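Handoff note, outgoing to incoming analyst
You'll be picking up this chain. Sequence as last confirmed:
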Amino acid sequence: MNKTLNLFTILCVCYGFFATSCNFRYEKTNSLLEQAENILDKHPNSTLHLLDSIIKEGKLSNDQHNKYLLLRVSAKHKTKQDISLDTIIFSVKKYYQNKKDDFNTFRSAYYSGLVLKERKQHKEAMESYMDAQQHGESITDENLKGLLQSAIGELYYIQLYPKEAIEQYKKARIHFLNSENYKNQIKTCNLIGSNYLLENNYDSCFAYFNQALLLAKTHNDSSEYVYINQNMGIAYKSMNDINNAKKVAKHAISYSPSSKERVMSYCNLANIFLSNNQNDSARIYTNMAINETREDNTEQRAIIYGLLANIEKIDGNHEKALEYKDLFINYLKDNFMNRNKQVVHDVQKKYDFEVIQNINNRLLIEKQWYLLATMTLVLIILIVVLILYKKNLKNKAELLDAEHKILHMKEMAKNFNHKEKSFRNVLIQHFDILKKAALLEGYLKEEDREKGSKLLKKFNEVVYGQENMDWNQLYKSMNEVQNGFFDKIQTKYPELDELEFRICCMSYAGLNNTEISIITKLKVNTIHTKKSSIRRKLGIKEYGSFFDFFNENCPEDTY
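Most recent structure output, in case you need it:
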């Protein structure tokens, strides 16, 4: 029994360790996801690296997996990567809708709209944005609300609905003001200005551009300052104000914080010179852009060589124009290939993650089945051991009972008096106590006593293996000894059944519970219970004497 309990304890400890390790991995993944979410807005690239480390873990719960997917699409969008193939966000949206999680439903619906927009499915994108708005009533994140309104505005802008776009951008601006997100305020003012430019509303256009410039200066945001100046240059160019267009374009170059912004400013200025037929100046700034840009930046290289091809074509240098055109096409193709590589890389990551997930899920299922089978086996062993243990206890109890009865039988045989004519002696003779006690004395050796089962078996064979006692003959003998006294009892108390009557007779004769149990083959506790029942039936007080009761209620002179 102790060994089984020790085995069970060990298995419980193993199970606890397994459960604890699973819980540790679960908590570790939760911590990584929380870190990724905290740095998402400021460091989206770092967020992607952190999410890649989570992929290596492979084993994510359903909730963790959906959170991971939502964060990944968010980070890719913020790093300006292509998210058009990230349609998995649709299932994420459905997952959070089913969970009635308004905040994450809002976010996943917003990003679902962005994915649909990238796929040129503008109608479906708008429906997803509207769906996000429905879940946005309980959202307190003003910046997120502003991003949604801005995305709706962008969709109108793409479809050339500037009035509707301006309305949405103005709503977005209010949200960004409430969230104190200055960068998004600058971008929104810039976008409002660009939409007014589409309507040729130059006053409103420059009013918002100037507001954006003021915010950029206040917060020392040189990147946004450059973009605003570039847009203002486009606005001046559309007004045929070439001088101011050149002025703001050159201004943008001086404020460009990195080579990327400077290259775009050079190209913007080259376009302005080209539109004013100043091809030499356009060529100078285009060459400056070539010197500034990196070889692996295929997108910017394609733009630059496209510009050079136009310049040479206008100058009549068709051979040189074709040469630049070929370079333009080659860089365009390389850029396309790079984008495809990124897409393939993302798809491969997704596939690898799903493979790891499937492998881990299979291993988890196998572990769970193994653990379940082990626990089931242990449970069966414990049940069997418990049954055997209870059986052993029962045998011990019966053995003690038998030993107790043997002692009483010996005592009864020892105290038997042949000359005395009493019901007790008649009963001992009829039950053959003397013979049975002698047989037990002869059969029971010390080794049998050590083997308790043999003792119990031998006792039952000797005491109860003989022919049943003839109670009718016994009653006759009893009545002869007691002048019909027992017939009087049976006649006066017909409510007693046969067993109850026998117990009454033996109790009257002075046999104790153990002696009665030997003769009736019942347990001592059963005899005690039966006596209590008889007392209630006859009205004998609790623990009252049967001898006194029957002598009082069945005196000899009544017959």
